[in-house]
Structure formats: structure tokens, C-alpha cells
Protein: Tryptophan--tRNA ligase, mitochondrial
Amino acid sequence: VFRPTLMTGIQPTGFPHIGNYLGAIQQSVKLQNSESYDKIFFSIVDLHSITVPQNPTILRQNIINLACSLLACGLDKPQTVLFQQSSVPHHTELAWILGCLATLNKLDHLPQWKEKSPSKEDVSLGLYSYPVLQAADVLIYRATDVPVGDDQIKHMEFARHLARQFNKIYSPVFPIPKQITSQHIRIKSLRDPIRKMSKSEKDSRGRIELFDSPDEIREKLRKAVTDLGTGGMIGYDSQGRPGISNIIDIHAAVEGSTPDQICSECAHLTTVEYKERAAEAIIEMLKPIRARIVHLRNEPQHVVSVLSKGNEIAAQNAAKTCAEVKKLIGL
Ligand code: ADP
Ligand code: NA
Structure:
């Protein structure tokens, strides 16, 4: 029997945005507050972020900003272990071991390396084998549950496959981790509503970052791409009218309601008026988070000390699994 343990992560590739919050962070906070887990490992997955080029100064800054944001969102309970992936060497050690069970055939069928590779002809080994490291991130803590977005379904299946392989060959050391995806919410870019809102989209006007000021949020909503629709009125049709539908999706998630409810409440508004209404709802939701980020940014030593405590606890737990695994293999 394995203790209920949650593991999740986020890349320090930029400032977290409302898509990260509504699609992942908020759910982790709820799961944390449900008190149903012994431990919650929340990893700033910096080793994943370097699968594509990063500027060292900016990366270092992004790691601290992400830690501030996660704390500001409420991931600060005693059972929550907030830590930096690269400070726990057992992730890469287990990744090597799991990599010896992973085949090229399996990896070829995982979608992300093709999407993220800067070159079509060649791909870095890190980007290609990234799902193996992701499996190690989860298995090293013997996590039973993993809250991630639905873009991660294939990767989670692969992690389960590796856990089963290892358990079958050696001994059942790993639980088979479950993916938890409560709401299948996928926020799109405000500038390009066909693509997901992402930290790594070049045009930052496409995303609402957790630290954006009310005026920046108003401006981004005003400039959000929407069609003229039927007489400039709003309507929900994610295929035909992706821009306005995306804003309705964000608004519904922010209000904890549904696109249908939003549409009937706001049926009398023009698209322009509606975007102002949605902006105010978003500003309201982000207000306390932003205030806490401001506060934490003025206390960098506090954030650094939370991280180093987290790094220590994560390493202790990971070391145990790693030692057991190596012994079983004969290392
Ligand atoms: P990004 O693409 O912004 O760099 P990450 O790859 O670091 O995001 O993902 C962090 C978490 O946020 C994952 O669980 C992912 O599923 C979720 N996520 C990322 N972008 C979105 C989005 N646009 N809508 C909903 N969830 C998202
Ligand atoms: Na990304």
C-alpha cells in the first residue's frame, strides 16, 4: 500500500499565466486544501525548461518568480513540498535507469518533441527523452496522483508503462500513478485563439500573467482577437468563433460557472462591452494573488528559504526510492 501522494510540476519558462492557474495551479491548491494527501510535491521543473534554449539570467529570475507565484496562489501548507527539480539529483539518476527500459518506438509516438523542436531535421536528446525524465519526476516520489492538463495524457500513460515494466522485472516499488484532470479546460492565446495560451508564446499580449496590473489586463482584453460575429454580439462557438469563446471560457472558469450561464447573463452586451466585463472579473480574481506576489517579491530571503527547505525534504524522499531501485537492479 502506498500513501496518497501528489506530484506535479511547472516549467520556469516565463511568468505563470491565467491558463496555468485555471488549468493546473488552482486544482493543486484545491487538492492540497482537501487534506487528502500525505505529501504534495510541487516541482519547478527547470531541467525540463532547458530542453529548449534559455537565457541563464532570465531562467534564474523565472525560477524565483515562479516560486513567488506558486506561494501567492496558496501552495504553502505544511504538507506541500515546493522545490526546484535540478537540486534533487535523483530525478536524473532515475531517468537514466528508466531510460534503459524505454524504447525509441514508444518515444516516437509521444507528440511534444515534434512540436517543440526548433529544427525539423534534428532534435536534441533532452527534448526527445523528456517524457522519461517526467516519468522519473513522478515515480521518484512514488506519487499516486498527478494533477496535470489533458495535454499530458500520453506522457502519463508512458509513465505508467515504465512503472509497470520496472515493477514486473524487479519488484513492485512503484505505485501506478493516476492522472487527475478535473476540468478539461484549455485556455487559448488572446492573440491567436487557435493555440493554447503559453508562457513561451513570443507575443506576451496573448496571455494574462498573474502579475499583470489591472490596466494591463484591460488593455489585453481590449486587444484580444475576436470576430465581428452576429451584429457585434457575443456567442459561444469554439469552432466558428474561437476568440470570443475563449474569453467566455476564461470568464466562466473565473466565476466558477459555465459558458451557457455567462452567455445568458451577458446576452445584452456587445463584444466590446463584454470584454470589459470579463476583464473586471479576471482583475477581481487575480487581485489577492497579485498582492501576495508583490509582498513576496519584497521578501526574497523568505522565498529562497522555503525553496531550500523544500529541496531538502524532496531529496530525502527521492534518495530512499533511488537507493531501493539501485539495490534491486544490482547496482
Ligand atoms: P506553458 O505552456 O505555459 O509553458 P507548462 O507546460 O509549464 O505551461 O504547463 C504547466 C501546467 O499548466 C500544465 O499542467 C499544463 O497542462 C497547464 N497549462 C499550460 N497551459 C495551459 C492552458 N493554456 N490552459 C490550461 N492549462 C494549461
Ligand atoms: Na511550455
Observations:
- Residues 211-295 form a domain with the Tyrosyl-Transfer RNA Synthetase fold (CATH 1.10.240.10).
- The pocket of adenosine-5'-diphosphate (ligand 1) is lined by residues 10-11, 13, 19-20, 23-24, 148-149, 151-152, 185-187, 196-200 (CB under 6 Å).
- The mean pLDDT is 94.
- The chain has two domains: 5-186+300-329, 211-295.
